[in-house]
Amino acid sequence: MHLSFKLTAVATLAALSSLALAQEQVVKIGHVAPVSGAIAHLGKDNEYGARLAIEELNAKGVNINGKKVKLELVAEDDAADPKQGTAAAQKLVDAKVSGVIGHLNSGTTIPASKIYSDAGIPQISPSSTNPKYTRQGYKTAFRVVADDVHLGGTLGRYAVNELKGKSIAVIDDRTAYGQGVAEEFEKAVKAAGGNLVGHEFTTDKATDFMPILTTLKGKKPDIIFFGGMDAVGGPMMKQMKSLGIKAKFMGGDGICTNEMIKLAGDAMADGQVVCAEAGGVDGALKKGMDDFSAKFKKRFNDDVKLYSPYVYDAVYVMVDAMQRAKSSEPAKYLPELAKTTGFKGVTGTISFDAKGDIKNGALTLYTFKAGKRDQIAVVR
Predict the structure, then answer these.
(1) Quick one: 65 and 170 in the same domain?
(2) Both 174 and 206 in a single domain?
(3) CATH number, domain at 132?
(4) Does residue 165 fall inside a structural domain?
(5) Is 166 a domain residue?
(6) What is the pLDDT of residues 102-154, one digit of tens each?
(7) DSSP strands (E only) in the chain
(8) Which segments in the chain show pLDDT lower than 50?
(9) How many CB atoms are closer than 10 A to CB 239?
(10) Which is nearest to 113 in space by CA: 348, 359, 358, 355?
(11) CA distances from 274 to 54, 76, 212, 369 (A)
């Protein structure tokens, strides 16, 4: 009798345990970034931001419509390649993720966005800045950083009005990001009355820039703007130095990284580089970002590279929308995501406009001095 009672009790406990597990719903959140290739350091940084957010949320306990859920990160690598990006997007759709954070590059984000739109899956990009991304009419597309109209435009005006550039040249890598930010820079330079002396082209995989730099050297530019990433920008600066080109080197967030210091080496003079990063905090927000950086370092034994705080905020924003909608089903929480207003993140207050763009997005101007990135100003 005693043994029978014990067996019954064990069976009951097992049944209750199984029931609890069954009740704990798993919500899959996809993340895509280039974790292989030349900018893998930036892709890994993004992925770490997603992991940190999901680990924190699971530790706190997430309830949606009164039921406890477990968040699961489904991470894919797009290698910053558009074809691989669309393949990764389809894998996430097939995996039935509830939402996607990514991609890092505009060149992968834009083609992937159609796949998510067709599947009705919300997508928040933490770092893609090409304006086209949110201008395709897809209700599923959002971003938590300012776009190239703001970024390129601010840099163009700064080149003319603050740096007093007399002869300005442009190079872009023909990617959606590089070309987009370079075009907006050019528009702003012209609008400010600046003198454009040339526009040359390279690729995001090139290593020899001597022909285009030699062409530009003959035009005696005092500023060269590069639309592209640090993996190309650093070596380009080395070849500029070998040709005796001492022009200021400007660019967007792609060259605004600590990795740029290593890649350019002694070719980078103090104050020579002026770059802008979509996003940025100052004043009261700085403590929150400092706290995030400390948590990030403790968890991954690595420093924040660029956009991990924006990925982190994007995950929180997505989960907040699910909780407000009382559902993790894309069709049910998408309207709530679109209504996001005044969400307090580590990167600032997040509200979306009708296109899915962040309202009043910040932009930070930087230079590099004594081997460190040095903030010039935060503008909105």
Answers:
(1) no
(2) yes
(3) 3.40.50.2300
(4) yes
(5) yes
(6) 999 999 999 999 999 999 999 999 999 888 999 999 999 999 988 888 889 88
(7) 25-33, 62-64, 67-77, 99-101, 123-125, 141-143, 168-172, 196-201, 223-227, 248-251, 273-278, 343-345, 348-350, 363-369, 372-379
(8) 1, 3-7, 9-11, 13, 16-21
(9) 17
(10) 355
(11) 34, 33, 21, 11
User: Structurally, how many domains does the chain consist of?
Assistant: 2
- Written as six digits, the tokens of 281 are 């905090």
Q: Is residue 103, in this structure, part of any structural domain at all?
A: yes
User: What tens digit of pLDDT does each residue of 293-313 get?
Assistant: 999 999 999 998 888 999 999
Q: Is 300 helix (H, G, I), strand (E, B) or coil?
A: helix
172 and 234 both lie in a single domain: yes
Q: Do 305 and 349 fall into the same domain?
A: yes
Distance between first and last Cα of the chain: 76
Give tens-digit pLDDT for 347-380: 888 999 999 999 877 788 999 998 888 888 887 6
103 & 43 share domain: yes
d(CA 251, CA 278): 12
Helix, strand, coil percent values for the chain (each to nearest 5): 50, 20, 30
User: Which residues, including other chains, have CB under 8 Å from residue 212's CB and lie 6 or more apart?
Assistant: 171, 200, 201, 202
Question: Closest Cα to residue 39, out of 152, 170, 205, 182?
Answer: 205
CA 230 from centroid of its chain's CA atoms? 14
Q: Which domain holds residue 70?
A: 7-145+285-361
Query: Residues 68, 198: one domain?
Result: no
